[in-house]
């Protein structure tokens, strides 16, 4: 399993971590090469202020919004897809199964679109984390997703 928190800190995050190690030294705490692997964004959707590009707005662990009752692909098919920026999404999972990420037919049996829930003005990525990470690895920042709006804000 891959810890998404390391990815969410941005594409430059991994490069900085490799940078200090490749120079044969440890990064000093607080330096630009230092990496805090324990940092987790609060479930409020408010991310820490990053000084470098990020992939996701924040990495959450769980669904802070109420149950919406959509569980099957047929239920979600009623929600029209639209484009969503990756840096506006808060994940609801901290880890990703690499088998799902690397599988060429990972969307064959499921929905072609990721599932996002908008609640209190925050976009939560409920299903499709592997699609979102694959999108980021392809140097794209837009994901096609079905967005269910649970609030009007």
Quick take:
The protein is of the alpha/beta class and 153 residues long.
For this entry, give a set of tags.
single chain, 153 residues, alpha/beta, six-stranded mixed β-sheet, two-stranded antiparallel ribbon, 8 strands, 23% helix, globular
Count of distinct strands: 8
Low-confidence stretches: 9-27, 29-42
Percent of residues in β-strands: 15-25%
Number of helices: 5
Architecture overview:
- By secondary structure, the protein is α/β, with parallel strands linked by helices.
- Helices cover 23% and strands 22% of the residues.
- The strands form two sheets. It has a six-stranded mixed β-sheet. The protein has a two-stranded antiparallel ribbon with strand order 1-5.
- A hairpin with a 2-residue loop joins β6 and β7.
- It is globular.
- About 22% of the residues have low confidence.
């Amino acid at each position: 399993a891959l810890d998404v928190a390391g990815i969410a800190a941005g594409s430059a995050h991994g490069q900085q971590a490799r940078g200090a190690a490749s120079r044969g030294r440890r990064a000093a705490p607080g330096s630009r090469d230092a990496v805090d692997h324990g940092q987790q964004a609060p479930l409020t959707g408010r991310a820490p202020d990053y000084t470098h590009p990020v992939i996701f707005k924040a990495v959450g662990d769980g669904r802070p919004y109420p149950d919406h009752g959509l569980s099957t692909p047929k239920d979600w098919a009623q929600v029209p897809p639209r484009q969503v920026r990756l840096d506006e999404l808060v994940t609801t999972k901290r880890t990703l199964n690499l088998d799902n990420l690397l599988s060429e037919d990972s969307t064959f049996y499921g929905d072609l679109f990721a599932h996002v829930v908008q609640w209190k003005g925050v976009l939560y990525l409920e299903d499709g984390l592997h699609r979102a990470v694959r999108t980021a690895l392809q140097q794209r920042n837009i994901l096609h997703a079905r967005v269910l709006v649970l609030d009007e804000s």
